[in-house]
């Protein structure tokens, strides 16, 4: 089978060797500061891509004039709860894989159709595996591991400060290896700053630990069953949350059963290999059925409309906002394309 040459820009959420062998990747990491149009991208990777994938890494867009790319283009969008410009930028792509299910409408009520947008929830990372407790590390009853900078995460910090007053058993940890910290903890808490379905849900369950997480939307209860695979709480009710932590710490057998069930669900459906399989199958289906060519032609025939309706103002605003001269120049040039 002919190899598909793929330029993957951004974060590597999955090992590339998990993909079919005829997917031939060139990776531009998220640390790369470049902004590329088509010719610049081809020069950067050293070949003409059959597919360009932009994997979200929560920075200003590294691709411009993507509405005129002559190959299949794919956007893996995760931080849609943070960046309001994502649904507009997405209109320049052929396919979008979106992490947060309840934000579909924002992507669909423009140019993209239902057949071009897919729900692509987070998954457990390769590090999310059960470990034996380390006797050399501290033991914790309940733990939260994550950023606790009050300037960046004010809602989170306020919540945990208030909760800790009623629940002194709770340990808050900003840094460290989460699999090791979870292994030495009886209960792991999650917090969703924007009521999003985040990776921590899958990481905790993948480590086979009992999870206490906010009862949010975005498909959480479609993937996992409350009180069977995880425990839920209302972040608006500190007292009730503290009481639930106390109850769970007093019932280790219940926690063990729920952790086991959540772990089994992750192993069945929410490891990197499952996401790679879904992503690969959708791309293969579209490419091998000839749909990719029609999507590309449809986009190219509407490139001026796409630019003017969805991308022009975005590029101009980014140019005005950017303090990086190279990015500023690239966005300004892209904004004045037509």
UniProtKB/TrEMBL annotation:
<protein>
    <submittedName>
        <fullName>Glycosyl transferases group 1</fullName>
    </submittedName>
</protein>
<dbReference type="InterPro" id="IPR055259">
    <property type="entry name" value="YkvP/CgeB_Glyco_trans-like"/>
</dbReference>
<dbReference type="Pfam" id="PF13524">
    <property type="entry name" value="Glyco_trans_1_2"/>
</dbReference>
<feature type="domain" description="Spore protein YkvP/CgeB glycosyl transferase-like">
    <location>
        <begin position="176"/>
        <end position="279"/>
    </location>
</feature>
<keyword id="KW-0808">Transferase</keyword>
<dbReference type="GO" id="GO:0016740">
    <property type="term" value="F:transferase activity"/>
</dbReference>
């Amino acid at each position: 089978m002919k190899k598909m040459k793929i330029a993957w820009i951004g974060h590597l959420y999955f090992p590339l060797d998990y993909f079919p062998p005829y997917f031939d990747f060139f990776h531009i990491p998220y640390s790369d500061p470049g902004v590329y149009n088509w010719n610049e991208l081809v020069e950067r990777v050293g070949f003409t891509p059959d597919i360009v994938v932009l994997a979200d890494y929560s920075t200003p867009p590294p691709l411009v004039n993507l509405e005129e790319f002559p190959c299949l283009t794919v956007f893996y969008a995760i931080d849609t709860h943070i960046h309001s410009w994502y649904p507009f930028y997405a209109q320049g792509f052929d396919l979008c894989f979106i992490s947060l299910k309840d934000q579909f409408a924002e992507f669909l009520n423009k140019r993209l159709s239902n057949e071009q947008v897919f729900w692509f929830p987070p998954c457990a990372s390769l590090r999310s595996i059960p470990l034996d407790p380390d006797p050399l590390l501290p033991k914790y009853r309940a733990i939260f591991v994550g950023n606790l900078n009050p300037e960046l995460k004010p809602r989170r910090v306020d919540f945990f400060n208030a909760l800790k007053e009623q629940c002194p058993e709770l340990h808050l940890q900003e840094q460290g290896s989460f699999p090791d910290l979870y292994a030495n903890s009886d209960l792991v808490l999650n917090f969703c700053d924007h009521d999003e379905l985040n990776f921590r849900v899958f990481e905790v369950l993948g480590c086979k630990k009992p999870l206490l997480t906010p009862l949010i939307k975005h498909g959480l209860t479609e993937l996992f069953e409350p009180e069977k695979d995880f425990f839920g709480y209302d972040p608006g009710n500190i007292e009730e949350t503290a009481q639930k932590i106390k109850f769970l710490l007093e019932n280790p057998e219940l926690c063990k059963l729920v952790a086991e069930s959540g772990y089994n669900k992750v192993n069945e459906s929410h490891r990197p290999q499952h996401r790679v399989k879904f992503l690969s199958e959708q791309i293969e289906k579209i490419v091998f059925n000839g749909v990719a060519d029609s999507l590309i032609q449809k986009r190219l025939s509407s490139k001026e409309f796409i630019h003017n309706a969805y991308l022009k103002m975005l590029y101009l605003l980014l140019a005005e906002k950017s303090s990086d001269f190279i990015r500023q120049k690239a966005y300004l040039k892209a904004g004045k394309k037509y």
